[in-house]
Amino acid sequence: MIVGYARVSTDGQTLDAQRATLKAAGVERTYAEKISGAKTNRRQLQVAIEALGVGDVLLVTRLDRLARSTRDLLNVLATISEKGAGFKSLADAWADTTTAHGRLMLTVLGGLAEFERDLIKARTAEGRKREAGEALAEIGRSYNVSHSIISRL
After folding, report:
1. Chain centroid to CA 135: how far?
2. What is d(CA 119, CA 115) in angstroms, rounded to the nearest whole number?
3. Which of 82, 35, 104, 91 is closest to 59 using CA atoms?
4. How far apart are CA 55 and CA 24, in angstroms?
5. Residues whose CB is less than 8 angstroms from the CB of residue 122 and which lie 6 or more positions away in sequence, other chains included
6. What is the DSSP string of 108-140?
7. Where are the alpha helices (DSSP H) in 65-99?
8. Which of 9, 69, 81, 146 is catalytic?
9. Counting beta carbons within 10 angstroms of the beta carbon of residue 69, is it exposed (0 to 12), middle (13 to 18) or buried (19 or more)?
10. Cα(65)–Cα(120) distance, rounded to whole angstroms?
11. How far apart are alpha carbons 56 and 1 in whole angstroms?
């Protein structure tokens, strides 16, 4: 069985296009909700995963409909895998855990995304540390702007 999951973030958005795309792809039952992808406790996603059996597939129109963070993505995919089911994204052909190649691609890309996030955190922490230890005038000089501009940021 192919189970669909559709999600939009705000009430102003519609689920119609995702539902139609999933139906055209052979989805038998679609679970849908209006909730931020950053939230990990999404009731309809949980119900969709609970509906999966061995050999079933959870299908989404795009990967970002399922998860917004690498950690969340990997957690959801692990839960799907534990049920003996697979996952596919229509817009992201490489995101297909029903094939060995797809599982490899998701693992590698998940690792790269996590690495990038760690780099961003490190750069941000370095910037905060620098700003905390320097006078506004010194920071302004390093960016060739006045200290008053720095103080407004």
Report:
1. 38
2. 6
3. 91
4. 20
5. none
6. HHHHHHHHHHHHHHHHHHHHHHHHHHS-HHHHH
7. 70-82
8. 9
9. middle
10. 23
11. 5
Predicted model pTM: 0.70
147 SS3 class:
helix
Annotated catalytic residue 81: no
The domain defined by 2-98 carries CATH number 2.130.10.10: no
Which structure tokens are listed for 40? 């990990």
- Cα separation, 72 vs 12, in Å, equals 25
Q: For each of the chain's 153 residues, which pLDDT tens digit applies? A: 999 999 998 777 899 999 999 999 999 999 999 988 778 789 999 999 999 999 999 999 998 899 877 778 888 998 999 999 999 999 988 899 999 998 888 788 777 777 877 888 887 777 766 666 567 677 778 778 877 776 666
Angle value at C-alpha 43, between 37 and 47, nearest 5 degrees: 115
DSSP 14-49: -SHHHHHHHHHTT-SEEEEEE--TT-S--HHHHHHH
User: What's the rounded Cα separation, in Å, for the pair 59 and 116?
Assistant: 27
